[in-house]
Amino acid sequence: MSDITRRGFTKLAGLATMQPAMASAAFMTSPEEDAVQAVAGDRQFPKDFLWGTATASYQVEGAAKEDGRGVSVWDTFSHTPGKVVNDANGDVADDHYHRYKQDVQLMQALGVKGYRFSIAWPRVFPGGSGAPNPKGLDFYNRLVDELLANGIQPYATLYHWDLPQPLQDKGGGWESRETAKAFGDYAGHVASGLSDRVKDWFTVNEFWVFINLGYRFGTHAPGLKLSNARVNQAAHNAVLGHGLAVQAIRARAKGSVRVGIADSTSIGVPVIETPEHIAAAQQATRESNAQAMTVIQEGKYTDKFLRDAGADAPKYTAEELKIISTPLDFIGLNIYTGYFVAADSSKPEGYAVVANPKSYPHMASSWLNVCPESLYWGPRHVSKMWGNKPIYITENGCSSSDIQEKDGKVYDTDRVMYLRNYLTQLGRAANEGVPVRGYFLWSLMDNFEWADGYTNRFGLHYVDYATQTRTPKLSANYYREVIARNSVL
Ligand code: PNW
Question: Is the pTM of this model over 0.85?
Fold first, then answer.
């Protein structure tokens, strides 16, 4: 690393430690930095835009056997040799269960005003249903109090993939409608316990990922490779569980709450931004999310989905479709990438997906193609198709092959590049009037990246797992500057 780069970083890091007001005062005095601000003015986010970070229970908490926590499918899967890189597991992870106060201080230093975390179902109901564990909510009570004491709003996700193992053993997990019912009951129980302070709720995280990786490809827990028909039924039961949870949260909440989802809605991006390709990309987005966001928003499966699925289509009732499409207060989108779409009049659906060449750039995770435009087109398609509800980007971020340099710092210039480009596109959407209200960066800190174990790092903070030391990366300093200015720079 050159001295110039080092000096630049030291300066940046120095600025970042100041209070926002001081930082902007320092800004005004330097002509060089004034020039930067002039550009940043065009990239200003709406007043009250919520900047946040996100994590999930199994990926950060550890304390796998503490305070009566039951076993989840991810405990079972990660403890099965050969399933996770280096046979890693979440037994300790980031030890967030014990270090949450320190982690809230990391958020405080970033200046975030929102924290999206998830609740571990097996802590609350070790058996999945039946008797709740009396200590199950204690940790989340402490966490929520600590967040609020630091001026950070809690955004709770109820299901981020750690299904209680007994529900897998009994009915095959999401293959059973009983799991959907149990999820509703669990959601209502948690809402009744926390909703005096937690006002914003997400039911399920990323239908497509846990259903397809868990039940079709077997690369995530529970590690199954089921037929199309069985996968489709599991997917249906999962959106049904979502709908039941929405109703249960509202029924049992103390005071008013807002409920939404955090879905990995896949985003069609027009190959060229002309009206025909834009329309094609929007239609592709509707179809490629037929089993999750589309059925949730429209209360029916699309004709194309039912035609393509044929005899493998899920079995369902009209009543279930109503539950699934219970209106939401906001929409959460986890967006990491997109796929390109072109108009194609030779196809009955009127569009074609354009495959990327091998040289298309991606981040450290091979699936994570760099596609900043997804953060513009995602919210725009969703609000055009399904109405002007508030939208939150519930996850966005990237993996990088981070290393700690001899000076102890992590110069993740690629993550800064990624964030700058994606946030520019998000700002474009916000400034055009698309109702994006907030952004949760994945992730606050490096953590257990599912089947990749600890090998792929997504954090703003580098975690040395041997000592549990957290070190802010260059990207943490970058994000702090974005938040302080409410603007991309
Ligand atoms: C999301 N894919 O997972 C999850 O919500 C997080 O728990 C996870 O750590 C984060 O994104 C980064 O991976 C995904 O293969 C996992 O396309 C896989 C895919 C997408 C998202």
Answer: yes
